[in-house]
Design brief:
single chain, 6 helices, 138 residues, mainly alpha
Amino acid sequence: MKTEENIAPFFRRFMAFIIDVFYILLIFLGLNIIGKNVLEINSPLFDYFVVIACFCYLVIPTGIYGKTIGKWALRISVVNHNGAKIGIGAAFAREIGGKIFSSIPFLIGVIWMLKDDKNRTWYDIFFETLVIKDKAKK
């Protein structure tokens, strides 16, 4: 099955995003509650640690496996134009820089997915990635 014939639909991507936001909030709130209230860590460096942990949730699984928990639940993956995993470096650039750039102004770069024939956002276009449906297991 060709990669471009297996493009993930908007709804799957959106639902994966909602699940990922839930997990990021869980990480953020969980670390803050445990760190600041239970362990009584009051260092400003701890705040940076929490933000980095949230970014790691997006970057590491996307780079290694092509998916986060949300993408796994909706059976979609991020791949390069050859259908291979994108790697940690590309995942970092895509998930952090690309998503921030595409969100400014007014999420235009994200909403672009509705216009694009391959359901690509600006960060997908810029980093040459596709979000595809996973192959059905036999």
